[in-house]
Design brief:
The protein is mainly α and 107 residues long. It has one domain (2-50, 64-106). 50% of the residues lie in helices and 11% in strands. The chain has helices at 2-23, 29-33, 39-47, 89-106; strands at residues 68-73, 76-81. It has a two-stranded antiparallel sheet. Helix 1 (2-23) runs antiparallel to helix 4. The longest helix has 22 residues, at 2-23. It is flat, with a radius of gyration of 17 Å.
Length: 107
């Protein structure tokens, strides 16, 4: 029971993160704290950016096609599209929110 309530609370926090990225990104903590300087801050600035939808494309350019993961299995090189859920914070938060709601409902 308590675990379900915590998961519902977590889903609300994740939803507020999605709203912050979508509607008030320019004045949020993500812009103020993640100014350039090193590779980690640059990555986090891109991950939490308001131009999140471009990150699913190679070099963030729509005409270049989808970004790919390369996997080597039995000496074969396979390429798969990177799932949108791991390209940016908005989709990642949405994925975690849905998982939290599903687990809270089941429990």
């Amino acid at each position: 029971m308590i675990f379900s309530v915590l998961l519902f609370f977590l889903s609300g926090l994740l939803n507020s993160l999605m709203d912050t990225i979508s509607f008030t990104h320019s004045s949020s903590v993500f812009v103020k704290k993640m100014k350039g300087g090193n590779k980690i801050k640059d990555f986090l600035a891109a991950f939490f950016s308001e131009k999140w939808w471009k990150l699913k494309y190679h070099d963030a350019v729509e005409g270049n096609g989808r970004a790919k993961w390369t996997v080597f299995i039995f000496k074969k090189r396979l390429q798969y599209n990177i799932p949108v859920q791991v390209c940016d914070a908005w989709h990642f938060s949405k994925m975690l929110m849905v998982f939290a709601l599903c687990f809270a409902t089941v429990l």
